[in-house]
Amino acid sequence: MQSFRFTLQAVRTLRLRQEQAALAHYLRAVQTHERDRDELRRTQLEQEAAWMRLRQGLPAGLSARQLSQLHAYSWTVEERRRADEAAGQLSLQLMSQAAQSLRLARRQREVVDKYYDKQKRSHDRRAIGRAKTDGRSGLPGPGFGRACGFGRGDGPELK
């Protein structure tokens, strides 16, 4: 029997590698987004703590200099929070683009795999057809019983 050879094997390999690269890119984008999201959460908690210290410092009678320092620190944390939000939005967009690229790469690979499967089935059908016409079907022929020592009358009686 002739072995199956897929003429587009190079394309199949390329599509598989493209899909793997797109998956790796997507995973990095997800990790980056999670890291940005975690950083934003930490900054928000720090901002809340800074504003809380500022609110508690007003009635406690802190000096003007101390209040000014707390206020400046609070606004610095606010600016960092805004930058973290912008970074989170950007990483979310990049993650979305990476997901879209992964879906496209997966579709392209699936098209080649579908064609491969179709060609393989066709090859297998042709091979079975050739084997049957060559008498090599793998099934026992009409003289099989006699070849195994069963002549006429030696086997079980059939009614």
Question: What structural keywords apply?
Answer:
single chain, 159 residues, mainly alpha, Helix Hairpins, 3 helices, 80% helix, rod-shaped
Write the layout of secondary structure elements.
Layout: H1 9-60, H2 64-134, H3 144-147
Helix pairs in contact: 1-2
CATH class: Mainly Alpha
- Total count of domains: 1
Radius of gyration: 36 Å
Tally of contiguous helical segments: 3
* Low-pLDDT ranges: none
According to CATH, the fold-level topology is Helix Hairpins
Distance between the termini: 40 Å
Counted beta strands: 0
Structural class determined from secondary elements: mainly alpha
| Secondary-structure element series | HHH
Architecture per CATH nomenclature, i.e. the level-2 architecture: Orthogonal Bundle
Shape: rod-shaped
Helix content estimate: over 70%
Average pLDDT over all residues: 86
Largest sheet: none
Which band does the percent of strand residues land in?
under 5%
